[in-house]
Design goal:
The protein has eleven helices and 38 strands. By secondary structure, the chain is an alpha+beta fold.
Length: 624
């Protein structure tokens, strides 16, 4: 009898566990065994048909769990009849009928990971499937694997957070074996971002620090951007039933920044909305600089007008004891303001606080303080200061003496007192008032008399005295005569000098040069015949040099001298006669010498203002 056995195996991992035995010439009911090498593995397979036919195919299907795919196989079929046994060819492909071990899945716990399912797989190469109950939702996730550590990330917009999910995972190996179901996670996932919002800015000028919008859902985190920069921390956010108001914080913006504002919403799951509409704008939440008080003027004794500068268009307010007593809007081009108090400033000592509110509604961070000491309406009281006069700078203008303390730079504005009594001297405010009534030209003429007789700039205290005498009606000629008989003059114009020497000295001190022959002859004649007295000669030389017949050099020389003298005494109020001589010593008709002299004056002002080298300064301001 001729028997033929042919054993074939499925060609894929999924079918390799199916063996087909084709039999020819056997006897029905013969016994067939499957051997792996010499080991009987027949019981590891299901056989169909169960009775071996004489001819035809017999299908052997490997039983679940009998093979892991790791065994070394060489399987043959062996038939034994009444005669000799017959053996088929061997099949050697691996067989895997063992399912992967089921896994334990977890869900991320933070807003950034709540959309992720993680687990560790037991083996490589398995296909991952995720189910919601019995529905395969694997396509709703992106799967990543790092050394068998799997992360399943829910795709954007796949879940809204409202679905009740019962998630589980199955693994299918290459042979098609499917693991048992993993544990079940009853949860929700949100991968749908909030809807974008439409933002609006508050109206100009005072509400531009407000950004408003209505949110589509509760609980979202708000992010504010300018271009790509997150500036959320520059706003305070409030929410009233999903109506949001973003208020720019104080000092966060100064109005000069070009802002391109937009808002994003981020929900609890970390989903971010699309960008809102864009607002190109500016925001100002920085208060203006404190207003600067430039001067005070008097309408009534206790109603001083506050003059100064502030931010353009700002509203400047004046307060006394917390009460508003006046306000004005700073000029939109110059920033100049004038505040006339609507109520009287109290008699005695008081302080007015001045603040600015800009067009965006921001108030200056610090007030400007103006101190007043106001006397009675009779102008008959002295103002007493328990300190040496050298510790102060006095600036008189329009009925007010601004007293600056060199120690702390505090300023007290003294109004309606007839004098100021220091511990070492008394100053007559009435003289200040009279001197300030003169024009700058009159004061420069008086200054030149000082220069001519004393060869120095006037000291401010002395100049103010003689200016008050001029205001009372004393002529410049009479003042000049009075100067001639001063001890300081006698050192330069001694009565013992010959006419020629007297004229020469006068030219030297007044014009900075020796007399020309013609001038010497002319003035000698005038003095000899009594047409001019020596005590008025200095003024005659000044007037002659400034006349149309005088030389341009002499005219410019005197102009430069009077400019420096005026700056020394009137503008800066210096009194030291040594300094007065020094600043005039190098002045000529050249303008550069005026610049140099003014630099010296500035240096002496710094010295006089220093508490360690303090000197009194008495300035007149607002001279016409």
């Amino acid at each position: 009898m001729s028997v033929s056995l042919s054993l074939t195996q499925g060609s894929t991992p999924q079918t390799s566990g199916t063996l087909t035995l084709n039999i020819t010439g056997a006897t029905a009911g013969d016994a067939v065994v499957l051997l792996n090498g010499t080991t009987d593995v027949t019981s590891s397979f299901d056989v169909s048909p169960s009775t071996i036919p004489a001819s035809g195919p017999v299908i052997y299907t490997a039983k679940v769990g009998k093979f892991k795919g790791t065994e070394t196989l060489s399987i043959t079929a062996k038939l034994t009849d009444a005669g000799s046994p017959f053996t088929s060819n061997a099949v050697t492909s691996p067989i895997d009928t063992s399912a992967p071990t089921s896994v334990t899945i977890k869900q991320g716990t933070s807003s950034n990971t709540a959309n992720q399912i993680t687990f560790t797989a037991p083996e490589a190469g398995d296909v991952v499937q995720i189910f919601n109950d019995t529905t395969d939702i694997t396509s709703s996730f992106t799967i990543s694997n790092n050394n068998l550590n799997y992360t399943l990330t829910a795709n954007a917009t796949t879940f809204t957070g409202t679905e009740a999910l019962s998630l589980s995972v199955y693994l299918t190996d290459a042979a098609g074996n499917v693991s048992n179901q993993s544990n079940i996670l009853n949860t929700t996932i949100d991968t749908t971002p909030p809807n974008s919002v439409k933002i609006a800015q508050g109206a100009k000028p005072k509400a531009t620090n407000l950004i408003t919008f209505t949110a589509p859902e509760a609980g979202d985190t708000i992010k504010v951007f300018t271009d790509n920069t997150d500036i959320t921390d520059k706003f305070t956010i409030s929410n009233n039933n999903l109506n949001y108001t973003l208020i720019a914080n104080p000092l966060s913006f100064n109005g000069s920044e070009a802002l391109n504002l937009s808002v994003y919403l981020m929900d609890d799951s970390g989903n971010i909305s699309k960008q809102s509409n864009l607002i190109k704008t500016t925001i100002d939440t920085t208060g203006p600089a404190s207003p600067t008080l430039t001067s005070l003027s008097i309408i009534k004794v206790n109603q001083p007008v506050l003059n100064g500068t502030s931010e353009l268009g700002a509203t400047v307010n004046a307060y006394q004891d917390g009460n508003l007593i006046g306000s004005a809007v700073a000029d939109a081009k110059s920033g100049i303001f004038h505040i006339t108090p609507s109520s009287y400033v109290a008699i005695g000592d008081s302080t007015i606080h001045i603040s600015s509110v800009d067009v965006s509604g921001n108030t200056s961070l610090q007030d400007t303080l103006v101190n007043f000491s106001i006397g009675g309406v009779g102008f008959d009281k002295p103002y007493s200061v328990n300190s040496l006069s050298k510790n102060y700078t006095l600036a008189y203008g329009q009925g007010i003496v601004a007293m600056t303390n060199h120690d702390d730079n505090s300023v007290d504005n003294v109004i309606n007192f007839n004098s100021i009594n220091f511990s070492d001297k008394s100053l007559n405010i009435i003289n200040f008032q009279k001197a300030a009534s003169l024009t700058s030209s009159q004061l420069k003429d008086l200054s030149l008399v000082y220069v001519g007789y004393f060869n120095r700039a006037p000291d401010s205290e002395g100049l103010i005295y003689w200016a008050s005498r001029m205001s009372d009606g004393m002529s410049l000629k009479d003042i000049s005569k009075s100067f001639f008989y001063q001890p300081e003059t006698d050192n330069k114009y001694s009565s013992n000098l010959s006419i020629s020497d007297f004229i020469t000295n006068t030219y030297t001190y007044v014009l900075g040069r020796t007399p020309d022959a013609k001038g010497l002859t002319y003035w000698t004649t005038q003095l000899k015949n009594g047409a001019i007295d020596r005590d008025s000669f200095v003024l005659s030389i000044i007037n002659g040099a400034r006349a149309s017949t005088g030389s341009t050099t002499d005219t410019q020389f005197l102009s430069n001298k009077s400019t420096v003298a005026y700056n020394f005494a009137i503008n800066n109020g210096l009194n030291d006669v040594v300094w007065a001589s020094d600043v005039m010593s190098k002045v000529t008709d050249a303008y550069s010498t005026v610049v140099d002299a003014n630099a010296k004056i500035n240096s002496y002002v710094n010295t006089a203002s220093d508490i360690h080298s303090s000197e009194i300064m008495i300035k007149l301001v607002g001279i016409n």
